Task: structure prediction
Amino acid sequence: MKDLNLLVDSLQDVFSNKLLSVFIFGSKANSSEHPLNSNVDLFVVVDELTSEDITKLFPNVQRWIANGNPAPLIMSKDEFFGMTDIYAIEFSDIKWNYQLVYGNDFVETLNVNYFDLRLQCERELKNLIMKLRAFYLEHGRAKSALLPAAEAIAKTVIVIFRALLRLKNINPSVYKQYVVEQLASVIRLDKVFFKKLIGYKEGTYTFAASEIYEFSEYMLNQLSNILKQVSEM
Result:
């Protein structure tokens, strides 16, 4: 918390009355289980942003990063409200869970359009399918390559699944395994397979050799099936 206060103070020093809002998003927001000592995702909204501002902030942000935090996202107010069409998934995630630290609560009034969210879900699924095809052509069924890739795939999949639930007007659970259950109630998918995938990322499940052998083909089939349903929404 001390690091966060120091960074906010430095933001005030650099931006003065141009600093409009600072909020935490992601897993650390509104969580009493996770102290705000590291891995804090921070969003900063200012009235106007210049390259000189970035230069002035650099030393303070470097200290923030050195203490185990990602670099804060900084946008002008116009950018913040003008990018919901491009980053519909990301902004819907922020609206789902954020914690105001300083200034105005712009997130509360943020509007994410249904069609923008559906379009980005479709785009992200297509990107994931294309990347998985290329990965499969390069590595085949090699266990040494598939298992590390499974973690990255699981992370992307759960973000898409939460967005799809919002398209169905369902508030996603904070528990990833239950997100799969929720989505399986409204979209056709193999919930056992995706629960195993999430479990592998969380360290609670180990894929059998036969599952690894068929992983890429089965994942491609599942994602293509989900994409078809999203395209029909």
